[in-house]
Every structure is written in structure tokens, then in C-alpha cells.
Amino acid sequence: MKSTIAENYKRIREEIPEDVSIVVAAKTRTKEEIIEVIDAGAEIIGENYVQEAEKIYQLLGDRAKAVKWHMIGELQKNKINKALRVFDVIETVDSLKKADDINKRAERQERFVRVFIEINIGSEFTKAGVRPEYEAVIELAEHISNLKYLKLNGLMTMGPRAGNPEESRPYFKKTKEFFEKIRALDLPNVEMDYLSMGMSNSYQVAIEEGANMVRLGTVIFGERACSLT
Question: Which of the listed residues 14, 39, 186, 203 has the most CB atoms within 10 Å of its CB?
């Protein structure tokens, strides 16, 4: 018998350490599916697209305010204002310019925004993220630390898509090293609390390598239904 969304979430929540946060990756999921996972105890909803997040947020009504919202997809400049009205955390800051753009709009809205630096740990052309070089990562961390309306709160990486989760281990290990190096700098306005890495096929390896935040979709909701065209 197929497990329900609620059963899947509760099982994973019980299986992983208490100090590991679960970001429920809700891309393309329905209002009903998201309600089920929130009612099962989910505390963080992650969305890839601002427009989709806005729509779901409105449909959820009061339930939307019961959870935190994380932007886990690439944030376009023309969507920043709308994103700041929905998201509590933006996990995908990957350039000085993007940090500046978010800071400017946060100032206009008179709100402070928690952000993560996204690292393209596999140096993949098809993925966003700052290049995995010490100088580039530290430069961005130092830059964010000087922006009044942003607070650097962690690192995020996708990790290469691989069938075998073990193939992601060295990339997760390297991201953890960046995390510790930034933390050791003790920069002002920086609290390196979260290392967000690992998804449905790799979250267990990611946790073993130091992740305290994982982004899970398929393992909770099941495979996405293929739309017929």
C-alpha cells in the first residue's frame, strides 16, 4: 500500500537527526499536497519560482503563516520585490550584484533578509552558484557582511546530479570546508547557522558530511505526475 505524504514526512523526520531541518521542496505541488505536509509537521516550504510561491501562499491562507518560506531556485532581478513579500530566506545568492540588488529592494521595503550563498560545487555550466574557489566564496561572504539589510546565514549547494549518492560525497565534503572557513572568519553580520545540501536521492550522505538542512521533494510527495500535451 502506497504511503501518504504525511506518513512519508513523519517517517523521514523520525529517521534523521533532530537538529537537521527539512525544507519541503514544493515545486509544482498542489495546495492540497502542501496542506497535508504542513499538517504533518513541516516547518519550512521551499519554492523554486516566485510566481508559483505567490500563488500557493495566497491559496494557503493562514496556513502559509504557520511555516517559513525559502527561495531555493534562481532569483531573477525583476522578481526580487515580489520574492521579499513571500520568502523568509533566500538560499540562492551567487554574486555580488545579486546581493546588492536584494539589499536595495530590502531597504525600500524596510526589512532585513536572511540569505545563503549558493555554491556551484560541481562547476556545472547548467547550474547557478558562485564558483567553488576560496577567493570567490570569501569575497561574496565579506561583501554580504557589509550590506545593511542582508544577514548571511549559511551555504547552499545542489551537488552534481548522480544516480549513486556516494558520488556526491566529495562535493558535500568540500562545501562543508567552505562553510567552516567562513565561520572561522567571524565576520560581522554573519551567522553561519545552516549548511543546506542534499536532496531526495542524496540527503543521507549530505547529513553524514555535515548538512543540517536538506531539501526534499520526491521522497515526501512521490514522483511528479507527467502532464499530457
Answer: 203
